[in-house]
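BUG-303 | component: ligand-complex export | severity: low

The export step for iron/sulfur cluster jobs runs without errors, but we want the raw record kept on the ticket for reference. Input record follows.
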Amino acid sequence: MEVLLSEPRGFCAGVVRAIDIVELCLQHFGPPIYIRHEIVHNPHVVNELRQKGVVFVNEIDDVPPGQTVVFSAHGVAPSVRAAAKARGLQVIDATCPLVTKVHLEALRAAQNGHTVILVGHRGHDEVIGTMGEVPGRAILVETAEEAATVDVPDPGRVTVLTQTTLSVDDTAEILRVLRRRFPALGTSQKDDICYATSNRQRALKAMARDVELVLVIGAENSSNCNRLRELATDAGLPAHLISGPGDVNPAWLVGVQRVGITSGASTPERLVQAVLAALGPRAVRTLCVAEENVTFALPRGLR
Ligand code: SF4
């Protein structure tokens, strides 16, 4: 069996930055460091940090007064910032700058009297944070069907924004419906779906032409991992989202000559290498569609 590795894959600049921030907090302030929700959606990353003294909490009220709390890469609503301030917490913000960009666009649109239609997945941390920037002014749309029926107070004043980790193709379809319905539709100046999401999807599409099975390595609750698996399925391939080598079912591999592997933006590369080692292919090739050299600066207080 041969393995084709999709590139780019794995950690994006926002995830690298978020993990660096937590490591620096541990060094500078010492444990415990509190993080509201998972810093990134990967249990391996979360467990490693937990072992180093990070305490993950669901709510700001779970953080003892005076402690340091880190906001995850997915961003938070202003109400969460206010709760942290009221509790006297030291806040370190690991929100990805590309998520912050969407928050600012939502604010700008609302200030201009627009209703914000946010395309995204209900209940995702990033969506909750972005919607929270403009309470009462944002409507969530998940599908093209919802886009076809969404009701807004003034059809001439509508701006559409998207979650950063959506399917590029599905989102394009939703945007087509919205543009048809609202000819004056405002959009962000630059795509909200981030470079890492679109690069990983483009790389997977290129790889899918050449393999019989796709393994996406990452977490069940990772939006971009799920989109990669769906993309492979849409290409007509059997595809499985696995968290590591222990999830590989030997029955999947029977008669398969070429396996494609990719990983989501919050998946450590060592998990990809562990899966490779477990498969023991006779050859490994990499299919690269884009070079990534994006980096984001650390928050000022940690530089
Ligand atoms: S997937 Fe994109 S938006 Fe999310 S953390 Fe990575 S770079 Fe930022």
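Assignee comment: Attached the raw record above. The pocket of iron/sulfur cluster is lined by residues 12-15, 73, 96, 98-99, 164-165, 194, 196-197, 224, 265 (CB under 6 Å).
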